[in-house]
Amino acid sequence: MATATLTSKGQVTIPARVRASLGLNTGDRIEFVDLGDGKYAITAINQPVHSLKGMIRKPSAPVSIEDMNTAIAAHGAAAK
């Protein structure tokens, strides 16, 4: 487990192992995500949007706007 110490100025040095795991470099930004119950997750926000390419597979067949609207209306009505 990696640990760090909070300074009197509220600063923390992120351990090298954690920086490497998150792919952090000097000047990169991080986000603290509140998980509740006093727990937080640290997320690197240094990835360009292009790095998201390929995360979601393409549909096997194209879907029309009309089909999307029908599906939204059907699921929206079911949720009420």
How would you describe this protein?
With 80 residues, the chain is α+β, with helices and mostly antiparallel strands. The protein has one domain. Helices cover 28% and strands 16% of the residues. It has helices at 16-22, 65-79; strands at 30-36, 39-44. The chain has a two-stranded antiparallel ribbon with strand order 1-2. The longest helix has 15 residues, at 65-79. It is elongated. It starts with 15 loop residues before the first helix and ends with a helix.
> N-to-C SSE series?
HEEH
Number of domains: 1
Structural class: alpha+beta
Low-confidence stretches: none
Instruction: Provide the gyration radius in Å.
Output: 21 Å
Give a quick account of the main beta sheet: strands, pairing sense, barrel closure: 2 strands, antiparallel
Total number of β-strand segments?
A: 2
Q: What is the beta-strand fraction? A: 15-25%
Distance between the termini: 46 Å
Strand order of the largest sheet: 1-2
Overall mean confidence score, pLDDT: 87
Task: Classify the helix fraction into a percent range.
Answer: 25-40%
Q: What is the 3D shape?
A: elongated
Number of helices: 2
